[in-house]
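Please check this one:

***
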Amino acid sequence: MSPFSRFIVAALLLPFTLAAPKSLSKRDLDTSKHCGDQDRTDVGQYTLSTDTHGKSQDGEGRSCYQVHSLDGTKVAWENDWQWARADGSVKAFTYLNLNQGLNKQLSAIQSIQATWHYTYQDGDSGQRGFKKDTFVTIPWRLTTSSSSGGAVANEIRIFLGNVHVPLVGTSVASTVKIGSDNSNWDVYKGNKDDGTVVYSFQINIGRSDYDYTLRTEFDGDLNWFIKYLTSNQGLSADQYLTAIQGGSEAVGGTVTVNTSSYSVVVN
């Protein structure tokens, strides 16, 4: 093959080479364990953060996270923490924050493809949520604003896990079927102290004697929940999507949430 022909072949293959998904090796990825009060780690299109805004209620508590791998948009990571319940408030929120595809009007969003597979371990009892003094939620948290990048007007919480934590507001709908699998969700609506409207979805899969729900696998479209709210609960489709975060909110107990696959892509 002539040098010119080799150049043509290389030029034709270049776009496919650039488009190939990239996996970061552990050498390029920060896989160390972080236990700081406000630690942040960049992980591909996300930032992994801990916000210990309630630490004053338990000065000896701690939350830690560790990234295990990144493959394209899929992250494997772990969050473990130990906090006293104290006043019952959230002590820390450790979460992956999406940094791409945001500040679109809700009406312009075609899909928000999401995957979350995790295991939950109650370190006190060694059981899945049975310990009465464990309080934790495992939510997606989406925020919207009346302008691109503006102040938060609405917060949408989609709880895959809730162990003993009451939701903001009151029930506005129950056993609503959402998604291609027709999962049942209970819907709540309320307000935070600053006036932010909070919509909460809690998976309805039955409760134990200790009032907990856990759905450890989700593969679907978060836009299903937005469309339900714009069609049924008064959320304006003119709002802008300003944040998508997924993680665990620690209230009390000793817990490990080990995520084997997490991904969010806005289209």
Summary: Residues 113 and 221 are 5 Å apart (CA to CA). The chain is about 10% helix and 50% strand.
